[in-house]
Every structure is written in structure tokens, then in C-alpha cells.
Input
Amino acid sequence: MKRNVLPGLPLSLGITLFYVGLIVVLPLAALVFKAASLGPSEYWAIVSSPRAVASYRVTVLSALVATAFNLVFGLALAWVLVRYRFPGRRIVDAIVDLPFALPTAVAGIALTTLFASNGWFGSLLAPLGIKVAYTPLGIMVAMCFTSLPFIVRTVQPVLEDLDPALEEAAQSLGGSDRTIFLRVILPLLMPALLAGLSLSFARSLGEFGAIIFIAGNQPMETEITALLAFIRLEEYDYQAAAAIASVLLITAFLMLAATNLLQARALRYTARS
Amino acid sequence: MAQSRRKPPRVGDGPIIRRVLIGTTLFFGAILVLAPLIVIAVEAFSQGLKAYAATIAHPDTRHAILMTVATALIAVPVNTAFGLAAAWAITKFDFWGRRALLVVIEIPFSISPIVAGVAYLFVYGLQGLFGPMLEAADVKILFALPGIVLASMFVTAPFVARELIPLMQAQGRDLEEAATSLGASGWRTFFSVTLPNVKWALLYGIVLCNARVMGEFGAVSVVSGNIRGQTNTLPLHIELLYHDYQAAGAFASASILATLAVFTIIAKVALERRGAGRRPALAAAAKDQNAGTSP
Output
């Protein structure tokens, strides 16, 4: 191994560790410490209370539906942006990032106004008996919005770099478009798709700003877990807030681990095929 | 970019499937992404230009704008300095725990902003680690600008580092090693060798970091205390007006942030033309895999 001649390790690493310690690790440790200071039975009573469980259910189910929608829509959008040329394509490509750039509170009030029963879309859906704003459907719409770019942006570069020779080979062997897409293209996209999927799902689980405006926030029905933690805080019930926030934290860490695992596995799978 | 050569039709190039796919995605894209942007503009001016100007000129709105700008002016430079330091340490040296450090830096990206806010409460709040100490010293962190800045820093900590690290990793250490071996000091090497090579990626990270800091809602709403005219940032001010049934005012304030978002996207596209962004390690990894399978 070559001896490193570059200077600045103590300074740069010192700043990095200090900053990460102060800004990221310390607060999370304080939260874990606070949640751990509850006894196991007390902790369990809080995190398994009917209202908390109802909030997990609505959060996870909405996130699943939103992610499933974005899986199809995001893949289609990435495909359209990479494979087809049409007027306005570059603008569409740029606008895909809007959910990342637009503050969540702004997105929240905009979506609520659009989907309220007197809004542009809400008034069209109302005669069909579909209510979006202030129902779980509204939560899903908000989640779809905030997590849309993840799948598009992870799939797009892989789709761009896809070797046309693979498709041509499959075509020359008589594969139909459907077969080629399912057997050749999709497996190659799988690592990126899974990465985008888990990012999108994780973001949906933690989203707050865009959702609270459109959700209606009825306990047991349209109250997401992040909001429940916030409400407990406003009620000065710090222990409950810590316990519920710790559930979100643990979920985030599990999602992080799952993402890495899925990616590693998917990459191995592609290597073998 | 995909090549635009006219070759035998590729999968999905049939006119019907092409039209259906473009049509459907544009339809949903318009509903989900474009319509919110338009409705903000329409609602902001729904009471006329005068009412719009009055909202923007209102002391509470102006104070909220000031708070947001002040937060960004502190949080963005600090996170930029951190991003540069972290990228230098991680990409120019090998040390034990390097990969773990990378993971820790990325943590805020996968954590709910509400969790961040609650966590900060348990550090600086009265019921937290340092709360009683700070109270005794009469230092106000929570429900004041420092708390808002700290929470914003947490949420955006990875933004600059995330853009720099993959790029500096790919660029390697040769140039810096050549510069120092020719007698340049560390700082000189950094400013005249490293920085010019990463300037667009750096700017890209700064632009995204700034947009997120100015728009952060969840984490800030926990630590700010929501005191009108005192600790309200622009996103919190929007919420306040909206729940006060002043929708036009809320949308007028929102239009400022929406404009920022549009400019952020324009800057992003301009920087991507210069090679910033668009480099996910995953794409590169997948590409390697593809290269391995192609004839």
C-alpha cells in the first residue's frame, strides 16, 4: 500500500466527526435514550395503543399503495422520457423533480385545494362518489406526489445505458416485445427499480408536511404516525412522543438495511443472469 | 442520453404503445405535478393583485421571509463546509470506519423530519439532555432561530456531501498528490486543484440544500414553537394562514416558495448540463453488470 502524502486528514475528519456527532448522532441518541428510559411495559403500552396501531395501519397501507402506483407510473415515465422523443420532453424531464424542490407544506395546500370537493379535480370526482381530500385516498395522493421522483430518477440512468444489442439479440431470436420487456429489460432494471421502490416507500412512511393538510387527521382513520408523535408533543406527553418517534426511527433504520440488502441481492441476480 | 440513431424498431416503438404510454404518463404527470404548480399561481392571485401585494408586504409575512432567509444563510454555508470536509476526509484517505461514516452521514435522508424535530427537543428542550443547563444559563435554543437552524442542518446534512463524495471518489487522488509533491500546501491544493474539479457538483449540492432548508416544514414546526411574527419561517407561516382560513394569503406566501422551487429546478437543469448530478453509484454499478453480460 502506498503511503498517503495528502495533508488535512486530522482537520477534515475532525470537522466531519464533530459535526455528524453534534447534528446527527447526538439528537438521535437523545431520542433513543428518552424512549429507553420508559419501562418495557410502559413503552409497549404506548406503541401498541389502538390509536398508535391505527396510525401505523393507515401510514403503511397508504405508503404501499402510493409506492405501487409510483412503481408503475414512475417506470412508465422513465421509459417515456428515455425511449421516446416528443415536444416538451425536456420540460417534462425537468418538472419530474418538482416534488423534491417544492416545499412539502406548499404541495400540501395545493393538493388539498385541487382535491377538495369544490376543487378542480375534487368536483369532478365528487359525482362519482370519490372523495379524496380528508380521506386515506388524500394521504395516498400526497405520498404519490412527494415520492414520485425516486423511481423515475433511479430507473432513468439505467434505462439510458441499456445496451441495445441485448434487445436486438432477443428480437433476432424471435422474442415478442412483451417477452423481451419482461425477460430481458425488466431484470436489468430490477436493481434500480428496487432501490427506487425502497426509497419511495421510506419517504412515504416519514412524510409529514404534504400529508397533514390533505389527510383530515381524524384519529383512528386518517391520522399518520408522524402526526401522532407531533400531537403527543403538543399535549406535553413527551414520553409518548419519544416512544412513537422511536418507532418511526426504528422503521427508518430497518428500511435502510432492507434497501442495502435488496440492492446487493438484486445486483448479484443480474450478475448471474 | 439515449442515442437517436434510426435503427430497427426497439421494444415499445410501435405507434400505438408509444402514443398510449406518452398520453397516460403526461396525463397523470399533469394531474399530479403540473396542476399543483398552476393552482398555487391561480389561488395566490384569486383576490387580485392588490391583495397579493398586501399579503407579501404584511409584517408577519416579511418577518417569515426574513427568518427563512436567515436560516438558509447560516445552515447552507455550514453544511457546505461540512460537505467539503467530509468529502475530503472520505475520498482522499483510507481510515477505519470510513464506510460506517458514509452511512451515518446519509441517515438524515431516510429519517422523518418529525423524528428529527422530536429528537432535537430531547437535546435542547427543558425535558432534554441540556435543557436545564441551558435554562440556567438563559440560552434559548428551542423556539428560537438557533433551534430552527439546527433542525434544518440535520435535515440537509447529507445534501452537499452526497454530491461531492461520488465525484471526488471517481476523480481519485492523483492530481492532489501531484500538487502536494510539487510543494503546494494543503489549502492551495484544495483551492486550485480539487475545488475547480468539483465546482458544479458543489453548486448543485448547495442549490438543493438551500431549497430544502427554505422549504423544511416538519422538523422546523416541532422546534420553532410557531410564534407568529417571531419564530415562523415561511412554510410555517403558510400553514398558519391556511388554517386561519386565509387561503389567498397562504397561497400568496406559497407562491414565493413555489417560485424558489422553479428557479431551483432551472438551476438544477443548467448544472446537470455541466455534468453535475445524475451519477448514482447504483447506475454505475448496474452498468458494470450490464457490461459484463453483453457480448
Remarks:
- Residues 280-295 of chain B have pLDDT under 50 and may be disordered.
- The radius of gyration of chain B is 23 Å.
- Chain B touches chain A through 121 residues (CB under 8 Å).
